[in-house]
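Q: Joint fold for the lines below.
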Amino acid sequence: MATLLIPTPLRKFTENQAQFNSNGTSVKEVIDDLILSHAGLKPHLLDADGNIRSFVRIYVKDEDIQVLQKEHTKVEEDTLISIIPAIAGGSY
Amino acid sequence: MFEIEITAASNEGMSAHAVGTFPNECCGFFFGTSKNDRKLVTEIRPVLNVKKGDQRRKFSIDPFDYMKAEKYAHENQLELLGIYHSHPLHPANPSEHDLKQAMPFFSYIILSTQPQLVINITSWQLNENRDFIREELKISEPTNKYL
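A: Joint structure:
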Protein backbone atom coordinates (compact mmCIF):
# COMPACT_ATOMS: atom_id res chain seq x y z
CA MET A 1 0.00 0.00 0.00
CA ALA A 2 1.22 3.49 -0.79
CA THR A 3 1.46 5.78 2.22
CA LEU A 4 0.25 9.35 2.10
CA LEU A 5 1.51 11.85 4.69
CA ILE A 6 -1.18 14.30 5.81
CA PRO A 7 0.09 17.79 6.71
CA THR A 8 -0.80 19.13 10.14
CA PRO A 9 -3.42 21.70 8.96
CA LEU A 10 -5.48 19.01 7.24
CA ARG A 11 -5.48 16.48 10.06
CA LYS A 12 -8.67 17.94 11.51
CA PHE A 13 -10.33 16.28 8.52
CA THR A 14 -8.69 12.88 9.07
CA GLU A 15 -9.55 12.40 12.75
CA ASN A 16 -6.00 13.58 13.48
CA GLN A 17 -4.41 10.74 11.51
CA ALA A 18 -1.03 11.75 10.08
CA GLN A 19 -0.90 8.94 7.52
CA PHE A 20 -3.29 7.35 5.06
CA ASN A 21 -2.70 4.03 3.31
CA SER A 22 -4.15 3.31 -0.10
CA ASN A 23 -4.12 0.57 -2.72
CA GLY A 24 -4.24 3.20 -5.46
CA THR A 25 -1.69 2.79 -8.23
CA SER A 26 -1.41 6.45 -9.20
CA VAL A 27 -1.36 9.73 -7.30
CA LYS A 28 -4.86 10.49 -8.56
CA GLU A 29 -6.21 7.16 -7.32
CA VAL A 30 -4.63 7.67 -3.91
CA ILE A 31 -6.01 11.22 -3.59
CA ASP A 32 -9.46 10.08 -4.72
CA ASP A 33 -9.29 7.25 -2.19
CA LEU A 34 -8.34 9.72 0.55
CA ILE A 35 -11.23 12.05 -0.29
CA LEU A 36 -13.63 9.13 -0.40
CA SER A 37 -12.63 8.29 3.17
CA HIS A 38 -12.43 11.91 4.38
CA ALA A 39 -14.85 14.04 2.37
CA GLY A 40 -14.06 17.20 4.36
CA LEU A 41 -10.66 17.33 2.66
CA LYS A 42 -12.08 17.85 -0.81
CA PRO A 43 -12.31 21.66 -0.89
CA HIS A 44 -8.80 21.92 0.50
CA LEU A 45 -7.24 19.57 -2.06
CA LEU A 46 -9.29 19.96 -5.23
CA ASP A 47 -10.51 22.98 -7.17
CA ALA A 48 -13.98 23.36 -8.69
CA ASP A 49 -12.89 21.35 -11.74
CA GLY A 50 -11.67 18.44 -9.64
CA ASN A 51 -7.99 19.18 -10.20
CA ILE A 52 -5.44 19.42 -7.41
CA ARG A 53 -5.48 22.99 -6.11
CA SER A 54 -2.64 25.18 -7.27
CA PHE A 55 -1.71 25.95 -3.66
CA VAL A 56 -1.23 22.28 -2.84
CA ARG A 57 1.87 20.41 -3.90
CA ILE A 58 2.17 16.66 -4.04
CA TYR A 59 5.57 15.03 -3.69
CA VAL A 60 6.29 11.40 -4.49
CA LYS A 61 9.32 10.53 -2.42
CA ASP A 62 11.38 13.71 -2.93
CA GLU A 63 10.00 14.82 -6.25
CA ASP A 64 7.22 17.23 -7.10
CA ILE A 65 4.66 15.44 -9.29
CA GLN A 66 4.75 18.52 -11.55
CA VAL A 67 8.12 17.29 -12.84
CA LEU A 68 6.89 13.68 -13.03
CA GLN A 69 3.61 12.66 -14.65
CA LYS A 70 1.53 15.01 -12.49
CA GLU A 71 -1.52 13.30 -10.97
CA HIS A 72 -0.96 10.31 -13.27
CA THR A 73 2.38 9.57 -11.58
CA LYS A 74 2.49 5.88 -10.74
CA VAL A 75 2.93 4.77 -7.16
CA GLU A 76 3.94 1.42 -5.76
CA GLU A 77 3.32 -0.41 -2.50
CA ASP A 78 6.21 1.25 -0.67
CA THR A 79 5.80 4.71 -2.18
CA LEU A 80 5.69 7.64 0.24
CA ILE A 81 3.52 10.54 -0.93
CA SER A 82 3.51 13.93 0.79
CA ILE A 83 0.87 16.63 0.61
CA ILE A 84 2.60 19.96 1.07
CA PRO A 85 0.76 23.26 1.39
CA ALA A 86 2.43 25.92 -0.75
CA ILE A 87 3.47 28.46 1.87
CA ALA A 88 3.71 31.99 0.55
CA GLY A 89 2.27 35.43 1.09
CA GLY A 90 3.31 38.99 1.68
CA SER A 91 2.16 42.49 2.37
CA TYR A 92 0.68 42.99 -1.12
CA MET B 1 -12.46 33.20 19.84
CA PHE B 2 -9.04 31.93 18.78
CA GLU B 3 -6.27 32.50 21.32
CA ILE B 4 -2.53 32.22 20.91
CA GLU B 5 0.08 32.55 23.62
CA ILE B 6 3.72 33.04 22.62
CA THR B 7 6.64 32.61 24.98
CA ALA B 8 8.89 35.64 25.36
CA ALA B 9 11.81 33.71 23.86
CA SER B 10 9.79 32.77 20.77
CA ASN B 11 8.62 36.35 20.37
CA GLU B 12 12.17 37.65 20.68
CA GLY B 13 13.35 35.10 18.11
CA MET B 14 10.73 36.11 15.56
CA SER B 15 11.37 39.82 16.20
CA ALA B 16 15.14 39.44 15.81
CA HIS B 17 14.59 37.56 12.56
CA ALA B 18 12.21 40.24 11.24
CA VAL B 19 14.59 43.07 12.12
CA GLY B 20 17.59 41.18 10.78
CA THR B 21 16.07 40.65 7.34
CA PHE B 22 14.65 44.19 7.01
CA PRO B 23 13.82 45.61 4.44
CA ASN B 24 12.96 42.13 3.15
CA GLU B 25 10.24 39.89 4.51
CA CYS B 26 11.30 37.09 6.83
CA CYS B 27 9.44 33.82 7.35
CA GLY B 28 9.48 30.78 9.56
CA PHE B 29 7.55 28.12 11.43
CA PHE B 30 6.46 27.90 15.03
CA PHE B 31 5.72 24.91 17.21
CA GLY B 32 4.08 24.09 20.50
CA THR B 33 0.81 22.62 21.68
CA SER B 34 -2.86 23.27 21.08
CA LYS B 35 -6.18 22.49 22.61
CA ASN B 36 -9.51 23.48 21.11
CA ASP B 37 -9.06 27.07 19.89
CA ARG B 38 -5.99 27.82 22.01
CA LYS B 39 -2.37 27.50 20.99
CA LEU B 40 0.82 27.82 23.01
CA VAL B 41 3.92 28.63 20.95
CA THR B 42 7.12 27.43 22.58
CA GLU B 43 9.59 27.20 19.68
CA ILE B 44 10.27 28.88 16.38
CA ARG B 45 12.27 27.78 13.37
CA PRO B 46 13.36 30.56 10.99
CA VAL B 47 13.67 29.55 7.33
CA LEU B 48 14.91 31.29 4.20
CA ASN B 49 12.57 33.41 2.16
CA VAL B 50 13.02 31.78 -1.26
CA LYS B 51 10.70 34.12 -3.15
CA LYS B 52 12.32 35.06 -6.44
CA GLY B 53 12.43 38.76 -7.17
CA ASP B 54 11.45 41.49 -4.73
CA GLN B 55 11.36 40.08 -1.20
CA ARG B 56 10.29 43.37 0.37
CA ARG B 57 6.64 42.58 -0.31
CA LYS B 58 6.50 38.79 -0.74
CA PHE B 59 7.75 35.60 0.81
CA SER B 60 7.77 31.95 -0.10
CA ILE B 61 8.94 28.86 1.78
CA ASP B 62 10.76 25.95 0.14
CA PRO B 63 8.63 22.76 0.19
CA PHE B 64 11.58 20.86 1.64
CA ASP B 65 11.70 23.28 4.57
CA TYR B 66 8.02 22.51 5.10
CA MET B 67 8.76 18.78 5.12
CA LYS B 68 11.58 19.35 7.63
CA ALA B 69 9.23 21.35 9.87
CA GLU B 70 6.67 18.52 9.92
CA LYS B 71 9.45 16.04 10.68
CA TYR B 72 10.84 18.25 13.45
CA ALA B 73 7.42 18.50 15.07
CA HIS B 74 6.93 14.74 14.91
CA GLU B 75 10.36 13.94 16.34
CA ASN B 76 9.98 16.39 19.21
CA GLN B 77 6.38 15.59 20.17
CA LEU B 78 5.32 19.09 19.18
CA GLU B 79 2.63 20.41 16.88
CA LEU B 80 3.42 22.52 13.86
CA LEU B 81 1.14 25.44 14.71
CA GLY B 82 1.70 27.91 11.91
CA ILE B 83 3.79 30.34 9.92
CA TYR B 84 5.20 33.74 10.80
CA HIS B 85 6.34 36.42 8.40
CA SER B 86 7.10 40.11 8.47
CA HIS B 87 5.54 43.09 6.73
CA PRO B 88 8.36 45.66 6.43
CA LEU B 89 7.01 49.23 6.52
CA HIS B 90 3.51 47.85 6.30
CA PRO B 91 0.74 47.15 8.86
CA ALA B 92 0.43 43.71 10.48
CA ASN B 93 -2.73 42.91 8.53
CA PRO B 94 -3.04 39.90 6.21
CA SER B 95 -3.05 40.65 2.50
CA GLU B 96 -5.25 39.07 -0.16
CA HIS B 97 -2.19 37.01 -1.10
CA ASP B 98 -1.86 35.80 2.52
CA LEU B 99 -5.54 34.81 2.56
CA LYS B 100 -5.44 32.89 -0.73
CA GLN B 101 -2.64 30.64 0.44
CA ALA B 102 -3.85 30.11 4.02
CA MET B 103 -4.66 26.67 5.38
CA PRO B 104 -7.12 25.71 8.10
CA PHE B 105 -5.90 25.27 11.68
CA PHE B 106 -2.60 27.11 11.12
CA SER B 107 -2.07 30.45 12.79
CA TYR B 108 -0.44 33.17 10.72
CA ILE B 109 1.66 35.57 12.77
CA ILE B 110 2.54 38.88 11.09
CA LEU B 111 5.21 41.26 12.38
CA SER B 112 5.04 44.84 11.18
CA THR B 113 8.61 46.13 11.06
CA GLN B 114 10.44 49.41 10.81
CA PRO B 115 14.25 49.65 10.66
CA GLN B 116 15.58 48.10 13.89
CA LEU B 117 12.12 47.68 15.37
CA VAL B 118 8.99 45.50 15.36
CA ILE B 119 6.10 47.89 15.93
CA ASN B 120 3.20 45.45 15.99
CA ILE B 121 2.54 41.72 16.01
CA THR B 122 -0.78 40.07 15.17
CA SER B 123 -1.97 36.53 14.56
CA TRP B 124 -4.73 35.26 12.28
CA GLN B 125 -6.55 32.03 11.61
CA LEU B 126 -9.11 30.98 9.01
CA ASN B 127 -12.65 30.37 10.13
CA GLU B 128 -15.03 27.90 8.47
CA ASN B 129 -15.86 30.47 5.74
CA ARG B 130 -12.18 30.94 4.88
CA ASP B 131 -12.15 34.43 6.37
CA PHE B 132 -9.22 35.50 8.52
CA ILE B 133 -10.13 35.99 12.17
CA ARG B 134 -7.72 37.91 14.37
CA GLU B 135 -6.54 35.81 17.30
CA GLU B 136 -6.20 37.10 20.81
CA LEU B 137 -2.44 37.20 21.21
CA LYS B 138 -0.50 37.13 24.45
CA ILE B 139 3.26 37.16 25.03
CA SER B 140 4.35 35.32 28.14
CA GLU B 141 6.54 32.73 29.70
CA PRO B 142 5.27 29.16 29.27
CA THR B 143 2.78 28.21 31.94
CA ASN B 144 0.76 25.35 30.43
CA LYS B 145 -2.21 26.78 32.26
CA TYR B 146 -4.47 26.12 29.30
CA LEU B 147 -3.10 22.79 28.17
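Q: Anything notable?
A: The first strand of chain A starts at residue 2 and ends at 5. The helical segments of chain A are 27-37, 42-45.
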